[in-house]
Amino acid sequence: MRIFIPKETHPGETRVPVIPSIADKFVKLGAEVDIESGLGNGLGFTDDKYKDVGCAIQTDRKKGLADADMVLRLRKPPTDEIGLQKEGSIHASYMEPFFDHDLIKAFEKAKVNAICMEMIPRTTLAQKMDALSSQANLGGYVAVIIAAEKLTKALPMMMTPAGTLSPSKVFIIGVGVAGLQAIATAKRLGARVEAFDTRPVVEEQVRSLGAKFVKIDLGETGETKDGYAKALTEEQIKKQQAGMAKVCAQSDIVITTAQVFGRKAPVIVTEEMVAAMQPGSIVLDMAVETGGNVVGSKLGEEVVVNGVTILGPENLPGYVPVHSSQMYASNLYNLVEHFWDKEANTFKVNLEDEILDGCMIVRDGALANEMLKNHWNNQGK
């Protein structure tokens, strides 16, 4: 089986889909691996480093796509490149399938089987393939580092001959993978940390990291079977905002991580909440790429409102591209290895497996995921 790994074309993307040490594993698995020339140059991974582990270097991108039985990417592909792949081949990458219907149609037309990395089921067996979690983990870490760098105060308490400095207060909204890592990072830096989530079940995790869980009575809440927070009603959102307003006003840094899978991110921090914060405070919106949790946040921009700085950084895992590439490459390898037929040296499509059934969204020229079918039918497409 021939695997092709092309260079990323998304503006500003610093990560790569596969690093040499993971490419080595693909080769040892029995795959023929073609790497587009220059794939890893930005991270110091020269073509020679890929060649040293048995990869072939491809200088013709179109030929690499056309010859491949499987294409592995990080970002979703340009639609005009999907048709370059041969019928029946496999493509795996992020895809934004709830927001990009044209991409799905392109896979259907080309009869290219599409594996969507966002749709990997959140099960124990699939944990090692879960790219959303691996990248969110690093995103939570980076969010705290960026916010701390922008804050005009030190995070830890310091007792000095010149006096005692109180620890900065950090408030994390949303305690998923990103939120937990943000809590842990802020605590390691010495901040006083509080956190809130609509799922009361995460209180124990928050407390185990040394942070305080903020309790707000929202009535019945919970999480989906995949571990995501359920969408709140309008009344619940208003209660949540009122409960968080006081905490935000007392915080030096507020980091929002709340996202609802397949939908626009909910607005959590209002204009009034930002106005009540002290000048010099920082608000970082980790959900800015999916619509934003904070009124006034802008993708890739720094906005100052009444002395409060609102940050909307793009591609947080891309700030630490070596480690984020390493983790994503491992996710891809674990996916391929799980379905690898060692006798035939190929990726075996087993549609009875719940992992592949969940993440292979286009099969044999048709949309195959029930959740996506319902979504696009409701959109009238």
Per-chain topology:
Layout lengths: L1 E4 L14 H10 L2 E5 L10 H5 L4 E3 L2 H7 L2 E3 L6 H4 L7 E4 L7 H10 L2 E4 L14 H20 L7 E3 L2 E3 L3 E5 L3 H12 L3 E5 L6 H6 L3 E2 L20 H16 L3 E4 L14 H5 L6 E4 L16 E4 L2 E4 L9 H18 L1 E2 L4 E2 L6 H6 E4 L2 E2 L2 H9 L3
Parallel strand pairs: 1-2, 1-4, 2-3, 4-5, 5-6, 9-10, 9-12, 10-11, 12-13, 13-15
Antiparallel strand pairs: 6-18, 7-8, 14-15, 16-17, 18-19
Helix pairs in contact: 1-11, 6-7, 6-11
Describe this structure in words.
The mean pLDDT is 94. The protein is of the alpha/beta class and 381 residues long. The longest helix is centred in the middle third of the chain and has 20 residues, at 131-150. The protein folds into 2 domains: 2-129 and 321-378, 3-Layer(aba) Sandwich (Rossmann fold); 137-314, Rossmann fold, CATH 3.40.50.720. The protein has helices spanning 20-29, 47-51, 61-67, 79-82, 101-110, 131-150, 177-188, 203-208, 234-249, 271-275, 321-338, 354-359, 370-378, and strands at residues 2-5, 32-36, 56-58, 70-72, 90-93, 113-116, 158-160, 163-165, 169-173, 192-196, 212-213, 253-256, 282-285, 302-305, 308-311, 340-341, 346-347, 360-363, 366-367. 34% of the residues lie in helices and 18% in strands. Strands 3-2-1-4-5-6-18-19 form an 8-stranded mixed β-sheet, with helices on both faces. The chain has a 7-stranded mixed β-sheet with strand order 11-10-9-12-13-15-14, with helices on both faces. It has a two-stranded antiparallel sheet with strand order 7-8. α6 (131-150) packs parallel to α7 and α6 (131-150) runs antiparallel to α11 (321-338). α10 links the parallel β12 and β13 (282-285). The protein contains 13 helices and 19 strands.
